[in-house]
Design the sequence.
C-alpha cells in the first residue's frame, strides 16, 4: 500500500526511522528497538541506507591497501523482515552515492519482487574524503535524477531500451525536505525550487530533516504551498538524549537548536538531565504539531527506542 494512501485529513500518523545493525550484529538487536514501539501502531518504518566507506589497511611491507567496506549492510533484507514480522510498511532509503543506474535498477527490481512499494529517494552523503559529492560513473548525480529513474520504471522504462513489454513498477516515491535549507543549497529559494522539481518529477510525499523549532516547519510548509508543492510534508522529529547532541546535531545535520533549549542543555549536569530536557522539549513540539494535524510524526530513533516510546505514550 502506498504511504500516501495512509495519510488522512485531521489524523496524525506515527512512524519512525531505524538504522541497519552494524555488520556482524544480529537483526535481533533491531527488533529490540522496534518491539517497544509497535503498541503505537506505526504506519511505516523507514530503514536507512549506508554507502560504502574506504579504509586503509596496513600491509606487511609498510604500505597500505585501500579497502571498501559497508558498516551497516542489509537495508533491503531488513525491510522485507520488518514487513514479514510486523505487517507494517517498510520504506527503504535509496541513495545515489555508491550506485550506478544499473545497480539502482536492480535494487528496485529486488524491492518490487519483495512487495515493497515505498521508497525515499536521497542523494546521500559525501565520502569522508570528498569535499563535494561525486556520483558514480553512469550514476545519478542527485535525488532529482534518482526520482526520475524510479518514475521511469513505474512507466515501464528501464536502462535497456530494447526490453519489450517491460513490467511497470509501482513505487510511491518520497523526497527529503529541509526546513532550514540543504547544506549545499545557496539559499532557501533555490532549495525550494529544487524540491518543486522533485515533486513535479514524481515525488508523492516529503519527509523533513529534523528540526527543533516548529515555527521553521510551519513557515517551510507555507512556502512550499505558495510555489505549488501540495504533497504531504511529514515533519522529522529527533529527541535529544545527551549533552553532546548540542554540538553534534547542528554540525552534522545543518540545523539550529533554539536558544532556550540550548541554554537548558548547556546547564544540564549530565546526560540523564539532558535526556529529560530533550524529551520535555520534544513532547511540546509533538503536541503542537499534532494539534496542527500534520500528516505524521516521524521519529529519528537511531535504533534506540526508549525516548521515542516515552514521548509517543504522551502523544498517541
Sequence:
Amino acid at each position: 500500500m502506498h504511504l500516501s494512501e495512509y495519510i488522512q485529513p485531521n489524523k496524525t500518523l506515527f512512524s519512525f526511522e531505524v538504522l541497519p545493525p552494524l555488520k556482524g550484529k544480529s537483526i535481533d538487536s533491531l527488533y529490540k528497538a522496534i518491539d517497544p514501539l509497535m503498541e503505537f501502531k506505526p504506519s511505516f518504518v523507514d530503514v536507512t541506507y549506508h554507502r560504502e566507506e574506504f579504509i586503509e589497511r596496513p600491509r606487511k611491507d609498510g604500505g597500505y591497501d585501500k579497502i571498501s567496506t559497508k558498516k551497516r549492510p542489509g537495508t533491503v533484507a531488513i525491510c522485507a523482515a520488518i514487513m514479514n514480522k510486523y505487517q507494517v510498511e517498510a520504506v527503504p532509503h535509496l541513495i545515489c552515492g555508491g550506485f550506478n543506474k544499473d545497480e539502482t535498477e536492480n535494487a528496485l527490481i529486488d524491492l518490487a519482487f519483495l512487495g515493497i512499494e515505498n521508497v525515499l529517494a536521497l542523494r546521500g552523503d559525501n565520502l569522508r574524503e570528498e569535499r563535494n559529492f561525486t556520483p558514480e560513473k553512469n550514476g545519478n548525480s542527485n535525488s532529482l535524477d534518482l526520482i526520475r529513474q524510479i518514475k521511469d520504471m513505474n512507466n515501464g522504462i528501464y536502462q535497456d531500451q530494447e526490453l519489450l513489454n517491460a513490467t511497470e513498477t509501482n513505487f510511491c516515491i518520497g523526497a527529503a525536505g529541509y526546513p532550514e535549507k540543504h547544506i549545499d543549497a545557496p539559499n532557501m529559494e533555490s532549495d525550494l525550487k529544487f524540491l518543486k522539481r522533485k515533486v513535479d518529477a514524481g515525488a508523492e510525499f516529503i519527509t523533513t530533516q529534523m528540526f527543533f523549532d516548529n515555527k521553521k516547519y510551519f513557515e517551510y510548509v507555507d512556502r512550499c504551498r505558495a510555489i505549488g508543492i501540495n504533497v504531504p510534508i511529514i515533519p522529522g522529529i529527533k529527541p535529544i538524549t545527551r549533552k553532546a547532541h548540542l554540538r553534534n546535531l547542528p554540525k552534522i545535520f545543518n540545523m539550529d537548536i533554539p536558544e532556550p533549549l540550548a541554554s537548558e542543555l548547556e546547564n544540564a549536569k549530565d546526560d540523564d538531565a539532558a535526556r529529560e530536557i530533550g524529551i520535555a522539549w520534544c513532547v511540546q513540539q509533538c503536541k503542537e504539531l499534532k494539534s496542527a494535524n500534520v500528516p505524521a510524526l516521524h521519529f529519528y530513533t537511531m535504533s534506540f527506542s526508549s525516548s521515542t516510546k516515552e514521548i509517543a505514550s504522551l502523544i498517541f
Q: What stands out?
A: Residues 3-315 form a domain with the TIM Barrel fold (CATH 3.20.20.220). Residues 58 and 253 are 33 Å apart (CA to CA). The chain has one domain: 3-315.
